[in-house]
Structure formats: C-alpha cells, structure tokens
Amino acid sequence: MTSNPVLEITHLDKSFGALTATKNVSFRVLPGEIHSLIGPNGAGKTTLVQQIYGALAPDRGHIHLMGRDITALSIPERVRAGIGRSFQISNVLMDFTILENAIIAEQARRGDSFRFLYPAFSDANLIAGAYQILERVGLADQAGRPAQDLAHGDRRILELALALATAPSVLLLDEPMAGTGPQDSRRMADIIDRLRGQVAILLIEHDMDVVFRLADRISVLVEGAIIATGTADEISGNDAVKAAYLGDEG
Amino acid sequence: MLGYCLDLMRLGRDGIRDNRLLWLLIAGFGLFPIFTHFADLPFWNDVAMRIMLLGMAAMGLNLVLGYGGMVSFGHAAFIGIGAYCVGISQFYGITNGWAHLLFSLVACGIAGLVIGYLALRTSGIYFIMITLAFAQMLFFLFVSLETYGGDDGMSIDRADFGVVDLYDPLRLYFLIWICLALVGLALMFIVRSRFGVTLRAIKSNESRVEAMGLVPLRFKITGYVISAVICGLAGALFASWQEYVSPDIMHWTRSGELMIIIILGGLATLAGPLLGAIVFLLLEEMLPWLLAVVAPAYAENWMILFGPILIMVVMFGRGGLVGLLDRWRAANKAGRLMP
Amino acid sequence: MTMTLILEQTFNGLQAGVTLFLVAAGLTLILGIMDFVFLAHGAQVMIGAYAAAAITSVTGNFYLGLLLAIPVTFASGYLLELLIIRHLYQRDHMEQVLATFGLILFFNELIRIGFGPAALYSDLPPSLSGFVEILPDTPYPAYRLAVILAGLVLALAIHLFVSRTRVGAMVRAGANNPAMTAALGINIKILFRLIFATGACFAGVAGMLLGPLTSVQPGMGEPLLILSLVVIIIGGIGSVRGAFIAAIIVGLVDTLGRVFLPALLRLIIDQAAADGAGPALASMLVYILMAMVLIFRPTGLFPAKGS
Q1: In Å, what is the CA distance from A134 to each residue of A65, A144, A194, B63?
Q2: For the CA atoms of chain B, what is the radius of gyration?
Q3: Cα-flanking dihedrals φ and ψ of residue A2, to 5°?
Q4: I need a labelling partner for B231 at 20 to 30 A (CA). Which of A83, A234, B11, B134 fits?
C-alpha cells in the first residue's frame, strides 16, 4: 500500500492584515482517497482552497503535488501539473453547448490549442474525447443543450465534468452539491463515489450526511487551523471537533 | 484528406451560420463593377471601395471585440500605421507595392504585440482607456513628425505592384476585393479553429479557461496581433486609394466609427462588419441629403441625427442587423410551420 | 533657459494640472463607482465653457457668468443621468462607449447649431487681466494665478467633502466596493445621480475657467477627456486623491516637457535630429509616463479599490 501523498500541504500560513485566515495548516491527500475538508462557516475553507488552486499566494508554507513543489506555479501551470477544480459557483462556458464545453476542455488537455486551420467542433478526436468525459458523469444524452439552459443540478455536474476533463491527479471539489436538491445531490454523490480509487479527491462540503457517506478521511478546519484529521468514526468521536463544530447542539 | 474536404463542406452548417451572408456580400462586391459600368455610375465604385476597406478593418477589430470580448478603442492606430508605412516607404524612395504591404503588415504586427502586451495586462474599463490613450499617443506622434507631413499629411502615389497598374481604377478595386475575400476566408477559418474557439471561450468565461490549464493572455495577445495586421492591411490599401495620408486617419473617433459599424452589423458575426460598413456609409451619404430636403437650414448639421440614432441602436437593437435577419428568418420559418 | 522661464512654465504646468484635476475628479468617480465609461465628459466641459461665455456676454460680467453657469452645468449633468445614463449602467462597456460617443456627436452638433462652428473668444475679466509679480522681476498673468488658486481651493473642498462628510463616506465606500455599498441600503440611485451631476459641474467649471485661456469651440472638451483618462490611469480609478496628484504630475510633465525637452535633446544629440524628434517625443511624454505606470503598477498609484 503506497502512502506517498498525491497532495501534501505543509505549514501553510495566510493573513489579511490582522485577520489570520490560515494557521499553520498541514495535511495530506492520499492516492485514490476521498478526503473531506469540513469546518464551520468562516473557518477559512475557501481561502485554503484558493491557495491550493493558485488564486491566492500563501505567506508561508509549501504545497507539493506528486512530490513536486508547486507553491510558486500559476493557475494554468498547476492545472497542467494535475490539479483539477470545480467551483462553488458554477463556472461553465455559458455561451456554448455542453458538448462544446467538453470539447474545449478536451482540447485544452491535449495542449495544442494554437491551431488555426481545422474547425475545433468538427474534430472527430476531440468529439470522441468529449463524449467520454460526458459519459463519465452521465451528461452524454444532453450533449447538444446550451449550457445556459441547464438546470442547476445538471450545471453542477457539468462543472464537475470539466474539472475531471483535465485528467487531474487530485480533484478540488468546492461544495459540489451547493444549491442542489436531494435528487441531484444523490446523483452527484454517486458520481463522486464512483471516482474513488481513480483520482484523489479533496472534497469541501457542508452536508454532513454526504461527508460521512463519501469520505475516507476527514480534516476539520476551525478558525484557520486543522484541529483533527481522521476517519469518519474518529472524527465523530473527537471531543474537540464536537465542541467546535458538530456543535453544542449536543 | 477526403474526410477533411467533406468537413470543410459542412462548414456552412456548424455553429456560426452567417458564412453564407458573408460570401453573398463578397460576391456582390465582386459583381458590383459590372452594374456600375452599365448604369454609368463609376462614382459608386469609389464608394464601394471605401465600404470594402472600412469593412475589412471592422472585421479585423471584430476578432478581438466581438469574438474576443476585448473592447479596444485604439484600432484606428493600426489603420494609420499601415497607411503611413506606405507613405514613409515612398518617402524614402521605395516604390514596390509589395514591399509597402510587407512593411505595413510587419509594423502593425509589432505595434500590435507591444500595445497588446502592455494593455492586455488590464481588463474592463482600464483596457478601454489604455488602448484609447495609446492610439492618441500615436496620433500626436504623427502630428508632430514634420518630416512626414505632420498635421497636413503626405500625398501618396499609387504603388507599383508589378503586374497590377493601380492607376487603373478597376485594378485597384479588384486588389481591394481580393484582399477582402482573403481576410474573410482567414477569419472564417480562425474563428472556427481551436484558437478561435479558445478566444471565444475566454470571452465567455476567462477563469474557466484558466481552470482548463490554458493561459488566456497568450491567446488574447495573438488575437490582438492578428487584428492589428488586418487593420494595417486595410490602412495600406486605403492610403493607395486615397493617395493621401494624414494623422486624422488614426484619430480616436475613427476607432469609434469602427465600433459603430460592428455593433450596427452584429458583434461576433462574420458578415456583420461588412454589413455594418455598408449601412454606415450609406447613412453618411443619405442623412445630409435627407436633412437638406426636410430642414434645409440645418443641412450641414446632419451629424445631430447620427448621435441619437447611435444611442437608440445601442439601447434597442440586439445583435445588430445580422441578429435582425436571423430573427426575421426564424419568424418566417415559424410562420410556415403553422398551417 | 532663465529662471523666469522655468518658474513661468512651472506655474503654467500647475494651472494645466489643476484644471485637468477638475475634469478628472468627476470622471474617476463615475468610472470607479458606477463602472460606467462616460466618454461624453468632455462635452460637460464644453457646456460649461459655452454657458459661462454666453452669460458673460449677456450680462457683461465674468463673475456673474461663472456663478450662473454652475447651476446650468449641474442641471445638464443631472438631466443627462436621469434621462439616458441610468438606463445604461447594466449594459456592457462597449455599448456604454458607443452610447456616450453618440452623445458627444449630438452635443458637439447642438453647440454648432446654437453658436456656430467658429471659436468664441471670451475676454479675460478686466480685474484679472494684469500681471502679478510672483517673484521680483517675474511677472505672471493674474488670471492664470487665479485659476491655480481657484483650482486648489476646489480641490481642498472636494477632499474635505469626501473625507469628512457622511455623503463623502458613502462616495468613498462606493468607490471601494460598489456592490457592498448598495447592499448596505444606501440609496444608490440618488447617490449616482448626484455624483454624476457634481462631476459634470466640476468639468463645467474647468471649461469656464479655461474659456478665456483657450478658444471656446465645439469639441474643445475631447482633448481634455483623453488627458483625464491618462490621469485616471496613473492615479488609479475611483481615487480622487490619485486624480489630484496624477493631474498635477501630468500637467507639469506635459507643459515642462514641451518647452524643455527639445532643448535638452539638443544637448545630447545633434541639432537636426533633436529638432525632428524633440516635439514628437514631447507630445508622447505623458503617454510614455502612463505606459511606465502600467508596467509597474497596473492599478495606478493610489487605487481606490481595496486589496
């Protein structure tokens, strides 16, 4: 059993003036596992994700992807190195159809977008790759629909598909279920469940049922610091976690 | 290879539908001189040449503005650079037309690269203002270069293109026409290509493109350079046609005119800029005439109608003329489906 | 190159800077708070200049012209926002550009119809048409000195208003974070309208003050508009303080540059080349400055938006 982490965060610190958003955060995401990051509102989850993704630079600390230090890399460089991200607020290409979204993602993955002659949307190779992406999440039958006509739940799934399309080593899923109803939520959870073992996943999520169903391990973030990391049983039995987060609801 | 050709033939059916309108218009321009010959209205050939040149420049700008979402207010500068390159080459004794063209295209490419690199590090209002400022800078530069005519401009001889004697007005017409067709062809390919699709995706959602592992700046700069070169071509040909160039050709209001043309005809369409150019120049001809008939005392002030027309087009017109045609066609089809 | 010349040109630069600030102040707020590309700001300058010139020629009194023209420009800005501008806030920038471009054409033509295409000459007010000795043996036009003083007083007034009053705090909040300001329940519509009208007013005042110095003609505002954009880029969108400092810098660089750069060049390179390149380089100086600010500080020297 390999224990070389896919994603390793070491001693990450980030402050905005007097506000410390990230306090000496260290944790690792192991190959094939679904690692969930939970914490109360304002704990600093988004700030942490932004630093891993590259949208925000940490004050101190390092981020290693597959053993490689990516702390100084730009967002596109990190994506090509293997970080995939789905956004909390759907970030798909609204002016294109689902298939076109997937084609563009596929084209980006292949790395040769600077072609000027051949029509991209007629490229058989790209189309085949795009359908593979869509089939993986069950959107293939809606391929021709414009992204802006999609229902919220489907759009969240497209969001996930586009993150997957970059063939990442680790997927940052930022509240993938945000705003979805119970049915779509279940669909999404099924898709994520099926990804277990194929790609490492860092899942930021509020819904505790989803977390306990899906997560192999959980890290708890409170006021910018990780107070516990462990399996679902370990976390739910942890007193500090219960006090800080699962609440004094008793 | 066969597959590729078959795909090319399918081009008319995928994504952007206004291919056919573009080639219809271009064909129309090609046949136009026959009409003017028989109707004995050679003056209109001149108008048509102006329209083609304006349309060409507008098509160049449309690549970054309509398809790329970059509101560049400085593209008249590239038209000016293209035109001045012809004049300056002649000033130093170079008479070969091909050399002029090469000089114009290369100069505009470099200018596009420099200005694009500096300006595209910003976006939104900043970008608009910066491109405007750079265009004004070049305007003032040429105004103060007394050697090349300064404010008064310089006169230009129609160049020697070897095979083509440009003093034959019909030859110049068809040179312009061929260039227009080539630009149209190039844009048709570019807009559908992987590059063009990426540029359009950046307009739609830049952060998503970044999340796919692409660097948006590289695509934007490339698009900017291509559009600058197209405008430079239009400028070089314009200098030959007008036999004169002055800094006015790159005044910032000219960039405004290009934008008006694009929005009139339809953003992000291939035929839009050309259609817009036709309407724009016809308006320019007709409004003074209209005012002379309706209110002769104010005939000189026909521009006062133009402002409100523009404001109304912005507030009420969606998709420009191409959008209008699309909706009309769609309505017609719907009508026919109903018994 | 005497001390007198340097001093004189420095004061000219200050005068140019101060009038430029009056134009840029309103525009930077419109750009920063409403995210609205208001190209027709130059038209406000023109309206102010014409209003003052017209009233002055009717009443025979320059000061009366100034005083009465102020409400005219305020009203023109107010009405413009009410009737047209507020419908365009939601539109994308290109549409705003085109609509305001149309406004420029309209206003220029309107003035041409009303006052003719030729330039109007407005005289210096008799009380200020003399010279003042700013230093012994250094006479300087009294009117220009008055413009500098008036501009500085107005700048101080604006600064106090923005930093000390409640409305000023709303304006600063709006510049720093427009969405949040609206969410706080502040009546954005009225705030926008007042900012617009006040900006128009200041631009109009700039036009009124410049009237006797330059010619009053259709389209006189556009060069000032573009220069204000440069000022705003250098100073930072939404920042009145940035606009002031940048305006003074631009005014000084432009004025002193045009006068002294050709001479300076002649020291370095030969006469002929200097005479050719000098004026060209001088006219581009301000833009080169802008480009450099862009390279090192893309958001300007004093950006208003929070980090």
Answers
A1: 26, 11, 14, 30
A2: 21
A3: -75, 140
A4: B11
Tokens at A24, concatenated: 């000496």
Q: For every residue of A185-210, which 3-state class applies, written as one string?
A: HHHHHHHHHHHCCCCEEEEECCCHHH
Task: For chain C, report the end-to-end CA distance as a whole number of angstroms.
Answer: 45
Q: How close B40 gets to chain A, by Cα (Å)?
A: 42
H helices of B266-302, in order, are: 272-294
Within 8 A by CB and 6+ apart from A97, the residues are: A143, A144, A145, A146, A147
C-alpha torsion sign, points A179, A185, A188, A189 = positive
Q: What is the ipTM of this complex?
A: 0.90
pLDDT tens for each residue of chain B, 339 residues long: 454 445 444 443 444 456 888 998 999 999 998 888 888 888 888 889 999 999 999 999 999 999 999 999 989 999 999 999 999 998 888 878 888 899 999 999 999 999 999 899 888 888 998 899 899 889 988 988 878 888 888 888 777 665 566 677 788 899 999 999 999 999 999 999 999 999 999 999 999 999 999 999 999 999 999 999 999 999 999 998 998 999 999 998 899 999 989 988 888 889 999 999 999 998 888 888 888 888 777 777 777 888 888 888 888 776 677 777 777 777 776 655 444
Neighbour-count burial of A147, counting CB atoms closer than 10 A to its CB (0-12 exposed, 13-18 middle, 19+ buried): buried
Inter-chain touch B211–A162, beta carbons under 8 Å: yes
Q: Is the dihedral of CA B279, B282, B288, B292 positive or negative?
A: negative
Give the list of residues 6+ apart from residue C76 with CB closer than 8 angstroms, or none. C44, C47, C200, C204
Residues in chain C with CB shorter than 8 Å from the CB of B144 are 279-280, 282-283
Please state the pTM of the whole predicted model: 0.88
In 3-state terms, what secondary structure has residue A85? strand
Q: Which residues of B touch A121 (CB under 8 A)?
A: 14-15, 192, 197
Q: Flag if B125 and C102 touch (Cβ within 8 Å).
A: no
Cβ contact A219:A226 at 8 Å: yes
Distance of CA B200 to the CA centre of its chain: 19
Asked if B213 lies within 8 A of A114 by C-beta distance, the reply is no
Q: Which amino acid is at B318?
A: R
> Among all chains, which residue has been given the structure tokens 């010349």?
C5
Neighbours of C153 (CB within 10 A): 11
Cβ contact A119–B192 (<8 Å) = yes
Q: A219: which strand partners?
A: A37, A229
CB contact under 8 A, C109 and B133: no
Contacts of A117 in chain B (CB under 8 A): 189, 193
Contact status of A79 with chain B (Cβ, < 8 Å): yes
C84 to chain B: closest CA residue: B311
Strand duo A217-222 + A34-38: pairing: parallel
Helices (H), C211-270: 221-235, 240-268
> A26: which 2 tokens?
């260290």
Tokens of C141: 């036009």
Task: For B307-335, give one letter per residue: b (16+ CB within 10 A) or e.
Answer: bebbbebbeeeebbbbbebbeeeeeeeee
Q: Does B209 touch chain A (CB under 8 A)?
A: yes
Taking CA atoms, A83 is separated from A91, A200, B260, in Å, by 16, 10, 43
Whether residue C103 and residue B306 make contact (CB cut-off 8 A), yes or no, is no
Q: How far, rounded to the nearest angstrom, does the alpha carbon of residue B239 sit from its chain's CA centroid? A: 15
Residues of chain C found within 8 Å of residue B257, distances taken between Cβ atoms: none
Instruction: Identify which of A164, A112, A165 has the alpha carbon closest to the alpha carbon of residue B219.
Output: A112
Q: Measure CB to CB from residue B145 to each of C109, C113, C280 and give the nearest one.
A: C280
Cα dihedral sign, B125-B130-B136-B139: negative
